[in-house]
Amino acid sequence: FEPLLGQDLVDERELTAQRHLARVVEPGLPASGMTYASDEDLLPSFELAAQVHALVDDPLGFEIVRLSRFDPKRNRATLGFDVGYWGGDFSLICDTLIAPKWHPAPEEDYEALRVQTRRLNRHVLFDSEEAGWAFRHWYVQQPWAETEFEPGEIQVVRVDAIF
Fold it and tell me: How far is CA 21 from the centre of its chain?
């Protein structure tokens, strides 16, 4: 973790929380975050998530959510469905619409992107798993898209609120 500081790989605004997160994630998991089966950036319990949350500089700027990739059924806590890497912090919705950084759409594709994301809900997530998979299918075909290193690396993830 420490060697990454100053290399634009670690957000230096939340160092205390990030250091604690690095200490509590399961030891022995790869540090890269690139294996699609990995849960290394996910915390196994609400208690650990609350510890990290308490250490961020602005706790009101963050919320704890529950993620699921194998259970597409909505429940009363479901906010919607995101598309991105499991066990990582890459969201296609974020990188194409909210804060394009790594793989922004070129201006000539804005209209196609608008059409693809018209099914986003008030939480800026897709309302159904099917809509998430449809967006993923369209996205991976774009020449500017993130490249999967392994097939199936980019997945649809259910996002639930924690009450």
Answer: 16
